[in-house]
Queue: 2 jobs
Job 1
Amino acid sequence: KQEVTQIPAALSVPEGENLVLNCSFTDSAIYNLQWFRQDPGKGLTSLLLIQSSQREQTSGRLNASLDKSSGRSTLYIAASQPGDSATYLCAVSDDKIIFGKGTRLHILP
Amino acid sequence: KAGVTQTPRYLIKTRGQQVTLSCSPISGHRSVSWYQQTPGQGLQFLFEYFSETQRNKGNFPGRFSGRQFSNSRSEMNVSTLELGDSALYLCASSPTAGSGQPQHFGDGTRLSIL
């Protein structure tokens, strides 16, 4: 049974720092991995999607990597800003989409 | 292009009642998936509909059901509500079926059971 774990559950960093969020999954037979952002009281916004054949994807200050063999993905955020404060979720797709419980990120001004 | 629209945004019900939630996908999207989000369990997959047919189902009791109409709009119904059904219910649409498709989410319906 696929399980997705995100560590840490919460993170506070000063504005301007680079940071890494981690996601691990137990079954490497996935179609893709997706990173989402969720603001309080809102739905999910897709940030990056990495297909199983890819190693990384980049969008602006965000870079996501995927290592299927070790069951790990990282989301790298460069030069963090207060507007980056949100909960970040990763999700893997096999026959269903399985989400991690997220990392609550707080960027300190 | 309008995003995924969920109605209502907030709902309060009592135990034993039933509820129907609505989701209008992005225009042209034919797949709609439903999720339940709670603080304890996180986001859990309920079911996926494509071309008016349930294509995939999560591990929820039969009290949770859904349907999809010919215009791709979807409804989710929960009968005999329990306190544990209090949650944010999210709907996501994608152009075609399959969990490999990028998902576009609505802002959800917050359901509170008293």
Job 2
Amino acid sequence: SQTIHQWPATLVQPVGSPLSLECTVEGTSNPNLYWYRQAAGRGLQLLFYSVGIGQISSEVPQNLSASRPQDRQFILSSKKLLLSDSGFYLCAWNTGGFWNTEAFFGQGTRLTVV
Amino acid sequence: QKEVEQNSGPLSVPEGAIASLNCTYSDRGSQSFFWYRQYSGKSPELIMSIYSNGDKEDGRFTAQLNKASQYVSLLIRDSQPSDSATYLCAVRSGYSTLTFGKGTMLLVSP
């Protein structure tokens, strides 16, 4: 069966510090991978998605970046965090293809920028 | 701009009642529809998926889809306090990514 791992679970970082969140998927090949952010009281905002190694699409302009160095690894980074980067960051995956498929989420990282 | 609209709630129902959660979407070409449940502080978990007009039942959950009205709903029968959570509606068109609504908070009182 497929599983998705995301770490760390919680993170407190000072403004201006760098960020690296990692996500890996097991049990599948060539998944679509996604980074979402959920700010307090708000909906899920898609930040980045990737359909293959080295292929990253950005949905919103910001000081965050994403990379996919391996088929089942997705990394979210920032060089300098802003207070507004606080939120609940979620990695998700689904199988590629035209029809459906459901997206499955990791456990999330609660980021607080202070 | 694809939009998915949900009433933010909270929707309050007594234990044992039927909870009805609604969602409308703007992209008439949408083909795949999903309901996720999200407990406070946790990540969303998939409850139901529906792709064709009509009803789809899974245990106490029934998803209903009406593409002509661009409307999808989730019914929860015999609601339990453990069903108290935020329910997210998500929609996909073809190769596009999922678009989520902001969610409806459901409160089931004992």
